[in-house]
Structure formats: C-alpha cells, structure tokens
C-alpha cells in the first residue's frame, strides 16, 4: 500500500542567473558524464552472471534510477523557471536577488540574499523568496522594521540596514 502525502505548495518559479547555470551544469554532468559511467559499470556487472546476487549490478541499477529521477526533475524544473538576471528599476527597495543586511535589537547584523527555492543555502545566507522572512522583507527600504514571530519564543525585531544588488 502506498503512503499518501499531500501535495507540497508550488515554489516560486524564479531563479538567479548563477542558480540557473548551476542547475543546468548539474543536468549536463548527470546526463553526459555520470549516467554513461554508471551505465557502463552496470553493463560490466551484468556480464558477470547471476544478477540476483550481484551487489554491483543491484547498486548500479539503483544509482541509475536516482540519476534518472534527478535528470527528470531538473529537466522539468528548468523548463518552468524564470531567470532574473538584472536588478530592479527601484534598487532602494528589497526585491528578488537582493542582498539584505539586517540588525537586531542588540545591533548584531545578519546578511541574507533572497533567491529561488532551488538555491537555498543557509551557510551562504541564501534564503528562499517563499520563506516567511523573505516575504516580510519584500518591498521594504533601508530603515524599515520587520517583526518575525517565532515558535515558542518572543518576537524578533529586525531593522533593514543595507540593500545591495550585485
């Protein structure tokens, strides 16, 4: 019996040029380099005989399924996303692709970049445009305040200190 899961809400179709290039390069690598290597390994493992107990063959087939799944996802995703490769006309406000510096009540600063759902990387400070923080920041200017409600904690007050577009 299959396990039913509710459909996830669709993410925004936007992506930065760097993110698009990264996904496109991953697709090319998987299709032109990795898949042929794994296919050759499976072919060699299959030539060894009994496939039911051949770990290399079983693992190789599993790898091929994972590669094919990722290739299908990337192909579909790249067809439907919109590349945002220029700064908005009004660079004094926060929009997609902006680097935003925020200060909290203790003057600790944090820097985030608002990117597409496929580019999220907390280590780099990349947050999704679909994230609650990003949604609150959209169209704000330097000096504007943002209040974030946190689960089981007080509200977090942040002030927009700087906005950059690179």
Topology of this protein?
Elements: E1 14-16, H1 17-46, H2 55-80, E2 82-84, E3 99-103, E4 109-115, E5 126-128, H3 132-137, E6 145-148, E7 156-164
Parallel strand pairs: 1-2, 4-5
Antiparallel strand pairs: 3-4, 3-7, 6-7
Helix pairs in contact: 1-2
Q: Could you characterize the architecture of this molecule?
A:
This protein is an alpha/beta fold. It contains three helices and seven strands; from the N terminus they run βααββββαββ. Helices cover 37% and strands 20% of the residues. α1 (17-46) runs antiparallel to α2. The model has no long low-confidence stretch (mean pLDDT 90). The protein has helices at residues 17-46, 55-80, 132-137; strands at residues 14-16, 82-84, 99-103, 109-115, 126-128, 145-148, 156-164. The longest helix is centred in the first third of the chain and has 30 residues, at 17-46.
Question: What's the short story on this structure?
Answer:
The chain is 37% helix and 20% strand. It is α/β, with parallel strands linked by helices and 166 residues long.
Number of DSSP-assigned strands: 7
Q: In this structure, how is the largest beta sheet organized?
A: 5 strands, mixed
The total of helices stands at: 3
Helix-strand topology string: EHHEEEEHEE
> What does the radius of gyration come to?
22 Å
Instruction: Record the strand order, biggest sheet.
Output: 5-4-3-7-6
**What overall geometry do the principal axes of the alpha carbons give?**
elongated
Structural classification: alpha/beta
């Amino acid at each position: 019996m299959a396990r039913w899961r509710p459909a996830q809400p669709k993410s925004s179709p936007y992506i930065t040029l760097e993110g698009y290039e990264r996904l496109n390069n991953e697709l090319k690598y998987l299709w032109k380099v990795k898949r042929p290597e794994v296919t050759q390994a499976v072919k060699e493992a299959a030539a060894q005989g009994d496939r039911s107990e051949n770990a290399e063959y079983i693992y190789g087939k599993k790898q091929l399924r994972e590669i094919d799944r990722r290739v299908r996802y990337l192909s579909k995703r790249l067809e439907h996303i919109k590349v945002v490769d220029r700064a908005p006309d009004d660079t004094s406000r926060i929009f997609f692709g902006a680097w935003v510096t925020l200060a909290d009540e203790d003057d600790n600063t944090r820097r985030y970049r608002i990117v597409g759902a496929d580019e999220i990387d907390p280590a780099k400070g990349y947050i999704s445009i679909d994230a609650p923080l990003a949604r609150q920041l959209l169209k704000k200017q330097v000096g504007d305040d943002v209040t974030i409600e946190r689960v089981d904690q007080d509200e977090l007050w942040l002030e927009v200190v700087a906005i950059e577009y690179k």
